[in-house]
Amino acid sequence: MNILMIFFCLLISPAIVCADVIDYLKPAPNKEGVHSIRNIDFIYMINLDRRPEKFARSAGQLNTYGVFPYRFSAVNGWELTYETLNKLGIKYEPGMKQGIWGTCYFAENNGTPHHEVMHVPGRNYFSHCMSRGAIGIVLSHLSILKDALDSGYETIWVMEDDVEVIQNPNKMSDLIDKLDALVGNKKWDILFTDQDTKNKHGDYIPCLGYALRPNYDPQNPERFATRENVSHEFKKIGARYGAYSMIVRRSGMQKILSFINTYKVFLPYDMEFYLPKSIRMYAVREDVVSTFIDAQSDNGAPNYSKK
């Protein structure tokens, strides 16, 4: 591990030992062009190389308003080697929480996930039914956070390629001003650009709890149920599903990276980012950019291969 990586790990959290996940993140090259708006240093959109049509659709909606996201070539979890997969999850150790179901990937199973109650010391586990696609999504988000930190950005907008533009996205610049004035510009980590994620019928699906990890017990777990309207435009939240459109402050980037470096990749990204004990999250009360409920997904299977 080179000196730059060691410095980066010390930067995000002086108390942690540098974790292997850093070695499997992906760079963000060729960032020329204007990929920012007022109050947001850089705008990223995660997109698989095999899904150009999804980027064209989502970015095209934003382009109409003069917003041009940088296309981040997503980590394709379906193409990760077994060696890589087995360095990213949690290696079960005696003394870890018992009775939790996990998923393993063995080379001899030819890609088929193996599910069992976590119990074998030294065996690598992800959360139950964690797909290789979901692992790629985690690595994609973490890669962006690292790139943003390395680039010196204070505020970024991270989108996935299945968003729906509801209102002029430039409105988020003014909303950041308002949230800064309301709570303080150093007092929030993440701002979501819609109220909540939605199901296939368009109904909002709130998250009020958390998923178990074998190696982490959150302090004050009741915080995850927080749903507090702090103004007519914002609510403070303790947890939520969906990472398809989130504005992240530098403090939030550091907290999320530090947490996953310490505790390893285990859960889907939208069940991880709210676990750090000091994370401070808000959401708008009127959707600006939300999820496209009819979007095709390659999370559970590489459906792009069927095109």
TrEMBL record:
<keyword id="KW-0732">Signal</keyword>
<feature type="domain" description="Glycosyl transferase family 25">
    <location>
        <begin position="42"/>
        <end position="270"/>
    </location>
</feature>
<protein>
    <submittedName>
        <fullName>Glycosyltransferase</fullName>
    </submittedName>
</protein>
<dbReference type="GO" id="GO:0016740">
    <property type="term" value="F:transferase activity"/>
</dbReference>
<dbReference type="InterPro" id="IPR002654">
    <property type="entry name" value="Glyco_trans_25"/>
</dbReference>
<dbReference type="Pfam" id="PF01755">
    <property type="entry name" value="Glyco_transf_25"/>
</dbReference>
<keyword id="KW-0808">Transferase</keyword>
<feature type="signal peptide">
    <location>
        <begin position="1"/>
        <end position="19"/>
    </location>
</feature>
